[in-house]
Amino acid sequence: MMQFGAAACDLDRFSVVFRPGPRHTDCVTFAANKLCSDIRNSGRVDCHSNCNRSTSQVSLFLCSDSTNRRNGLLGGSPCVNPSGRRNLVGPASYSVETSAYDVAALEPPTHVAEEKVGVLLLNLGGPETLNDVQPFLFNLFADPDIIRLPRLFRFLQRPLAKLISVLRAPKSKEGYAAIGGGSPLRKITDDQALAIKKALETKGLSSNVYVGMRYWYPFTEEAIQQIKRDRITRLVVLPLYPQFSISTTGSSVRILEQEFREDAYLSTLPVSIINSWYQREGYIKSMADLIEKELQSFSEPKEAMIFFSAHGVPVSYVEDAGDPYRDQMEECIFLIMQELKARGVSNEHTLAYQSRVGPVQWLKPYTDEVLVELGKKGVRSLLAVPVSFVSEHIETLEEIDMEYKELALESGIKNWARVPALGLTPSFITDLADAVMEALPSAKAMYPRISTSEDVDHENDPVKYFIKLFFGSFFAFILFLSSKMITAFRNHVI
Ligand SMILES: C=CC1=C(C)c2cc3[nH]c(cc4nc(cc5[nH]c(cc1n2)c(C)c5CCC(=O)O)C(CCC(=O)O)=C4C)c(C)c3C=C
Ligand SMILES: [Fe+2]
């Protein structure tokens, strides 16, 4: 292990261990003492005041009880800038508030009496300004679940991400400029969070709802830190992607697992992850409602073809890596159409995949190619339905509403309409709230501490502890004597 400096905090529950950076071990004593006085005086720690030469070189671990101490450094690493943790890039907007640590929040949830429910909404995130576009793209392409390199070539991930993000930025910027200069995703997701919180309240559940974005602010790591500070005791994780893909829900959950594995509090926090929810009745009915309503905008509603356009993924995800995304998408479309048929809506429908990036094969058929074919075949009315995402974003507002609409009209389609994303649709929000309620009881620790008989006896039963101590000492004494005897014998034989 690395070199450690420790502070003798005369507090009964906390031990403080510093892992110094390679060149700043002399900061450690100062930092440790400062930290202890912070805890004693205010119960809070300002991590960044600890080492005035190179704060980022000093990692801090708080061990909340003697067991953690015995097991090594199970405490979190609270000083780390969430975006720096994964080496994500973005403007340095780390606030003082988020760097100040509530020490009590690090206590494992088993010590907390009152239940405090948290809901973590996971989403992709999007650049808020045109200047954010390239660093956002860097974060996206630096994700090994987005560009899947063979293990041997992983060292190329970040240089490649840099190259691709710089090359793609001009095209992406054009797209974001066309929809007002940034992604609306953060605002919409925040509104959804509030709506879900209210829906849960009407169902009698008080909760904190957090938003954790994968590639832009507020990053998932920031949300997790807030969950710790708020002393959440039970957490439901709800990715805002109806269908599971390795590249979306899979990637976000991988980050969660990474963060939770390393942390004493989070590893024992009961968590329930809703991996996909495309088959939920409330979601299917809400989609059917929107489609049914939008069909009425055509002069001949029955003539319009329902054109489901899903975000694509590379074929290799499905065929080599076992991504269930295509299967779930097809089932989802089947369920929506079944619901519509039950309502007497039996329009023709088709599914195609949009937004492919790079030279590899993506799921087919491609949206742009299908639009041209449909025009050639004589389809005159088309209702586009974005189906892999529940908020408006660049791929609905720019790609579908502008690029694909133009292509469709050029290809001979005369009447075009699009179903809005679900956003804050009340029946949809209610259904998400129901999904949370249903998931709550099955929450369990991601990484439960393996409690040894030693832990149980020592911590819970002092009588057993002393009996063990007595017999342990007795056996140690016998062993001591026998080793003396063996040595004596050996010496004697030689
Ligand atoms: C279910 C939804 C999505 C899947 C699956 C998905 C996979 C995926 N995406 C890229 C590359 C890009 N995605 C971009 C933006 C973007 N992607 C999704 C959703 C899914 N992506 C959304 C909602 C957004 C828009 C966010 C916003 O700004 O509002 C972009 C950036 C935009 C652009 O340049 O086109 C890229 C690039 C890959 C490579 C991939 C699967 C491997
Ligand atoms: Fe994407």
TrEMBL record:
<dbReference type="InterPro" id="IPR033644">
    <property type="entry name" value="Ferrochelatase_C"/>
</dbReference>
<dbReference type="InterPro" id="IPR019772">
    <property type="entry name" value="Ferrochelatase_AS"/>
</dbReference>
<keyword id="KW-0627">Porphyrin biosynthesis</keyword>
<dbReference type="GO" id="GO:0005739">
    <property type="term" value="C:mitochondrion"/>
</dbReference>
<comment type="pathway">
    <text>Porphyrin-containing compound metabolism; protoheme biosynthesis; protoheme from protoporphyrin-IX: step 1/1.</text>
</comment>
<comment type="function">
    <text>Catalyzes the ferrous insertion into protoporphyrin IX.</text>
</comment>
<dbReference type="InterPro" id="IPR001015">
    <property type="entry name" value="Ferrochelatase"/>
</dbReference>
<comment type="similarity">
    <text>Belongs to the ferrochelatase family.</text>
</comment>
<keyword id="KW-0350">Heme biosynthesis</keyword>
<keyword id="KW-0150">Chloroplast</keyword>
<protein>
    <recommendedName>
        <fullName>Ferrochelatase</fullName>
        <ecNumber>4.98.1.1</ecNumber>
    </recommendedName>
</protein>
<dbReference type="InterPro" id="IPR033659">
    <property type="entry name" value="Ferrochelatase_N"/>
</dbReference>
<keyword id="KW-0456">Lyase</keyword>
<dbReference type="GO" id="GO:0004325">
    <property type="term" value="F:ferrochelatase activity"/>
</dbReference>
<keyword id="KW-0408">Iron</keyword>
<dbReference type="GO" id="GO:0009507">
    <property type="term" value="C:chloroplast"/>
</dbReference>
<dbReference type="GO" id="GO:0006783">
    <property type="term" value="P:heme biosynthetic process"/>
</dbReference>
<dbReference type="Pfam" id="PF00762">
    <property type="entry name" value="Ferrochelatase"/>
</dbReference>
<keyword id="KW-0934">Plastid</keyword>
